[in-house]
Structure formats: structure tokens, C-alpha cells
């Protein structure tokens, strides 16, 4: 969640800055603020309480040791090695059934060797490509005090020549968890398409998130019924298979074809259900909490020595998962948020002493607000102030802290400020949260969803489990889930992108 402002031309620049500073002080020192965690102090001093630290590794390094880089890279390789079903099973691979040569699935080995469309298991992509000369460089992420260059390689995603499943014997399941996000249906669609290309015929959908594994009355695979005006409704009384024919047009709508829910991640019961249903591949679409649940399922399957590949696809509108360039749904959210900002701008410019206030989602990360502010070009100030508000102490079903409503709080503070100084102000407040979440994916996200969904299937057939399909440094890669759920990604107030936002808005540097 974050806030973006637009004021009418009735305020001069100096008045705007005085008002912004006053509003900031009221937020910081008003009755509703909470203690803010700082890097070195517990006192409330800054509206962006983010501790920016140099990147550190798991292994303890002595930078005076000439071999510290080698030790770091060995630890890195160990951490980013992809878990596989071959870790617990002695399996012999078979030639892949995935080939686009002549648009048909090969019946033998001949097309596999001739088609140069496969990724080698030793292929890697660099996670970081900028060599920072100093820790003081904008956005610097350093390992040692000298900010030495250290290669950080991650596994390239894509189809392999050899696979570890017999497609005709595979039962694959898809589940969408958390809140709605543009692009869910696009990913579901591509997973089904790619599974069928491999030759999988038994594809099921788990309704309403993790709850669909164990709650009574929820059957796997919804039956789709077309009514007047092509309105689609779910009926769980009958069981049918997901197929290309069934999902071919679901990308034209927002929401999730399978339904979503938060929480319900009872790992043992979920794995009991996976085992009872004889599921071989589980594709999990969700954010940080969902990824943590997927990894717990993966670990429980390994503990029980089940031959199950658990592969996640990062779905979070907030773009707050570590190491990734972006998650699907984010671009669409920024585009939709920009429309709300434009509306606030028109309202503010048309009113006498008008002020437009837009509250955008972001769960403390702030990427939607920052990017929407940059793209609109009509914002006077962009704030990411969640940690300054009193927390309710409650959590949602996913375990996320429920924040007080920053938008309503700021709306009231702005009105009070101008009333106190005797200046009339017409505040137009817009909260487009559910409009941002419920729309269909735009072209950029649709492409990202397509590739992520395809790569998720390739990863499962390659035998990987406990991984996520994502994009890093413009390349499609696989990452171990354990490495992306360590902490949420947040806007870095020392980054070049945030500096660009400040330049665009012209706001004071509150940080």
C-alpha cells in the first residue's frame, strides 16, 4: 500500500512543500504512528524505514583470505543447486516427448537430436551484471567492503533433452492461492497447453487454493457451464479433466478459473491428499506465503519419499519476491493504477484548491506506487508510509499483518491541516485496489505468464522440485524456493529507480 498525490495549480510550489512537510510531520508524530525500526536507532526520524545493507552470504567469510571468492561461489552453488526427485530416487532419464519440430510430439529419438531447442543442464545465467565500484554507488549490493565483482550464476529455465516422467502416466495438478492477480488464467492456460504437448492427459485443477486439497465439498476439477451471454460459472458436482479445449479462452477474463483463497496451508493434510490422489506434478501459483507453503509441501513429499515435483510460479501484484526482475501481474497493476492517478489528477485540477489522493496496494514494498508515479508523470509526491502507522495486531488468513488504512488516515490529516490554517481544500480520494487486481493481463504480463507457465512444466519434467519459474536479469531461470522466501523485496530508497521517481515528482527527499 502506498499513496500518490496530485494537487491543483492553486497551490504554489513553496506552499506545496510546506504542506507536504507538515503532512509528513503529522504522520510521523501524530497519535496513530508506531515505533519504526531503523538501522541504528529506534527513534522515528525517516518516512522510509528501510535498512539498506550489503549483500551477505550464508558462509562466514574472511575477506583477508585470498580464497574467499572461491568459498563464496562454492556456497552459492550449493544454495542455488536445484532440488530434484533424483535426490531421493535412483531414476534413469528417458528422451523427452517435447519437440516443436514439425509441430508434433516425437515418437522416437530422431527428432530430439536434430532440434536445437533444448536447454543444457549446465546452462547458467548471471543474476547480477553491474560491477559496482563502491558500496556508496546508487543501489550498490556488495559482498565485501571493496565491492569486488563475484559471479553469481543461476540455472537457466527451459525444456531438457531428457525427462524423468512418463507423460502418459503423469497426473498433474494446478492450484492458485492468495488474492487475485492479473495473469492467473494465462498461466493456467499455458501449463495445460504445455503438459498436453508433452503428452499428459490427466490434468486436474484444485479449487480455491490450498483449501481445495482437504476441505469437504470441494472436488478437484471444476465443471465449466456456459450460460446466456457466455457467463461462466463453476459447479463442483462433477469431475472432468482440464484440457486445451476447456482453457483455451480463459485468458480473456480476469480472476482465476480455479478460484483462490488465502491460508489453509496444512502441510500434512495437503500431502495426504496429494498422495491419495496420486498426483505426480503440482504447479502452485502464488506469492511469498504461497511459495513458503509450496516449499513445505515439497519437503514433506521428500520426507515421505514421494516422486512428486512441486513447482511454483511467482504471482504477486506487489512485485515483492526477492531476486526476480518482476512477477506476473505487476505491469498490469501499474497500468491500471495509472488510470486511477489520472482520474485523481483531473479531479484535482478541476476543483478549487483541489488535492487528489490515491491509495495503491503494495504491502510495504511500494513498487506499484513508484512505477505508477513514474509512468503517469502527474504525481507531486509518492509516499510509502505503512510502517509509520499503528498496526492492528491482526493478520489475514495468509499470516500477513493487517495495516491500518493509510489512505483514510492521510485524507483526514490533509483536511485537518488545511482547516487549521484556514485554507479551503477539496480532497478527492481514490482507492482502486480491487479494480487493479481483477482485470485481465496486459500484453507484457501475458507474455511473461506464457513463458513462466511453459517453463514450470519443463522444470517438472526435468525432475526439479521445490523450485520457482521466474525472470532474472531479463533471462528465464529456475531458483530454489528457499532462496526467494527469506524476506520480502522492498523499494530501496538509495536505488536509482527511487531517485528517478524523486526527479519525476519534484518532491522533497524525505529520506
Automatic annotation (TrEMBL):
Metal-binding as UniProt keyword: yes
Keywords: Allosteric enzyme, ATP-binding, Glycolysis, Kinase, Magnesium, Metal-binding, Nucleotide-binding, Transferase
Catalysed transformations (reactions): beta-D-fructose 6-phosphate + ATP = beta-D-fructose 1,6-bisphosphate + ADP + H(+)
Gene Ontology molecular function: any one: ATP binding
Alphabetical list of InterPro entries matching this protein: ATP_PFK, PFKA, Phosphofructokinase_dom, PKF_sf
The keyword Transferase appears for this protein: yes
GO cellular component: cytoplasm
Taxonomy, superkingdom: Eukaryota
Boundaries of every Phosphofructokinase domain copy: 172-458
Record GO biological process: fructose 6-phosphate metabolic process
Cofactor requirement: Mg(2+)
PANTHER family recorded: ATP-DEPENDENT 6-PHOSPHOFRUCTOKINASE 1
Free-text function comment from the UniProt entry: Catalyzes the phosphorylation of D-fructose 6-phosphate to fructose 1,6-bisphosphate by ATP, the first committing step of glycolysis.
Listed name of the protein: ATP-dependent 6-phosphofructokinase 5, chloroplastic-like
Provenance organism: Panicum miliaceum (Proso millet)
